[in-house]
Design a protein that fits this description.
InterPro entries: ABC/ECF_trnsptr_transmembrane. Its main location: membrane. This protein folds into two domains: 115 residues, no CATH class; 92 residues, no CATH class. It has nine helices and no strands. The N terminus is likely disordered. The radius of gyration is 20 Å and the shape is globular. It is mostly helical. It starts with 16 loop residues before the first helix and ends in an 8-residue tail after the last helix. The longest helix is centred in the C-terminal third of the chain and has 31 residues.
């Protein structure tokens, strides 16, 4: 199985200002960018914000290739969204919507590229701690996020491999040849993950 990134950049060791910034501040940056995507109404402002975020990403030492790797999987979807919005609402609005999506993706990639996964999960668990009074389990919540971060690239890689295999056999337009192998592999992966968690005493509800 080939390795695949999926939307967000992987952690890149470094000593930049963003690497050393508090996790809460980086979470706040992602939240602010998500909020800005609803507030910004001028595509030029969106372009300026995106340019700043891309500059920050490059300053971390992650590189252009990693930035493109985080954005590339979205390209077909953004193209469809852009064309549809252009048809419905006009060019400036379509450009603004596409840029705002990219702002959110690059902001989230800044977080994942400058924060080790374990530290990120510890931060998620800490953020969920206030909800313990409502019966939530912060550790299980962080574990769920960790499994998701690991599973998405695996499934994306499975789909790419199956697609290449189907294309080699002339079956790239056959939905069954694409969907069924991915479904079977994903179910097997989920079962293996569940068995591994159970063997470590995780995933079972506490009595």
């Amino acid at each position: 199985m080939r390795g695949h990134g999926f939307l967000l950049a992987n952690y890149v060791p470094g000593n930049s200002l963003l690497h050393r910034a508090p996790l809460a501040l980086k979470f706040l940056l992602v939240f602010a960018c998500g909020l800005a995507s609803f507030v910004i109404l001028d595509w030029r402002v969106s372009a300026a914000v995106l340019a700043v975020l891309c500059g920050l990403f490059l300053v971390t030492g992650a590189g252009v290739k990693r930035l493109w790797g985080a954005v590339r999987p979205l390209a077909p979807v953004l193209l469809v969204i852009g064309i549809f919005q252009w048809w419905q609402l006009g060019g400036p609005t379509a450009v603004r919507i596409v840029l705002n999506i990219l702002v959110c993706v690059v902001a989230a990639s800044l977080l994942t590229a400058t924060t080790p996964v374990q530290k990120l999960l510890d931060g998620v668990a800490a953020a969920a701690t206030p909800f313990k009074r409502f019966g939530a389990d912060p550790e299980r919540f962080a574990l769920t996020i960790g499994i998701m971060l690991r599973s998405i690239p695996f499934i994306a890689g499975t789909f790419a491999d199956v697609r290449d295999s189907a294309k080699a056999r002339g079956l790239e337009r056959n939905p069954r040849a694409l969907v069924l192998p991915v479904f079977i592999t994903s179910v097997a992966y989920a079962r293996q993950t569940g068995e591994a968690l159970a063997a470590r005493g995780l995933g079972e509800a506490e009595e």
